[in-house]
Structure formats: C-alpha cells, structure tokens
Amino acid sequence: MRKNLSQQKLLEILTSEIETLKQTTENINAIAPEIARQLHALKTTKVKIGVDTDKLEQLLEDYKQKLEKSIVIPRWFLLLITVVIMWLIIQDIFNLL
User: Fold this and answer.
1) DSSP H or E segment with residue 97
2) Where does the chain cross the membrane (predicted)?
3) How far apart are CA 82 and CA 70, in angstroms?
4) Contact status, residue 94 vs residue 27, Cβ threshold 8 Å
5) Which SS3 state, helix, strand or coil, does residue 13 take?
6) What does the pLDDT read at residue 5?
7) Gap between the Cα atoms of 79 and 85, Å rounded
8) Which conformational region is residue 48 in: left (phi greater than 0), alpha (psi within -120 to 50 degrees), or beta?
9) What are the tens digits of pLDDT across the range 12-53?
10) What pLDDT sits at residue 2?
C-alpha cells in the first residue's frame, strides 16, 4: 500500500513538472519571435538612433539562460524516473502473483 502511495505521489510530481515545462516552453516560443522581430527592426532601421542593441541581446540571452537553469528538467532524469517507476510497477505485479 505504501509503495503504491509513493509511486502515485512520484507520478503526480513528475506530471506536474512536465506540465510546468510544457507551459514554460510554450511561453518562450510565444515571446521569442516577437523579441527577434523587434531586435531585427531596431537593427535595420534607417533612422540614426543611439540604441545599444547589444545590451538588449545580452539581457535576452541572460534571461534565457536563467530560465533554462531554473526550470528545465534534464531528459536523462525523466528517463531515469520512468525506468524506476516501471521497475516498481513490475515488482508490484510480480508480488501480486
């Protein structure tokens, strides 16, 4: 019974983390093209304006790296957890027999 509860809790945590990762990816994918378009427009404008696009690019890159470090779950970790869950389920099935 306890194994089933811990497996269920682990599955809930993984599901929650995967949903968070999907939402973050969708947010990045939705925002990135607009930022790229605006940066391109700033770079190609014919008006002489003293805008430092390098600073904007650096801020964007810093934000992207910070976001990747804080949210992304490594694929190897997800695979490891999947293997562990499958192993526990198989053990549970054999214990029932």
Assistant:
1) none
2) 76-94
3) 22
4) no
5) helix
6) 66
7) 10
8) beta
9) 888 999 999 989 888 888 888 888 888 888 888 776 656 677
10) 61
Give, as one character, the DSSP assignment of residue 43.
Answer: H
pLDDT digits (tens, 9 = 90+) for 55-91: 888 888 888 888 777 766 778 888 999 999 999 999 9
Q: Quote the tokens at residue 36.
A: 């790229």
Closest CA to 18 of 76, 70, 71, 69: 71
Does pTM surpass 0.70? no
Query: Which amino acid type is present at position 18?
Result: I
3-state class of 1 per DSSP? coil
User: What residue type is 58 in one-letter code?
Assistant: Q
User: Quick one: tokens of 8?
Assistant: 């269920």
18 vs 21: CA distance, rounded Å:
5
- The contacts of residue 76 (CB under 8 Å, 6+ apart) are none
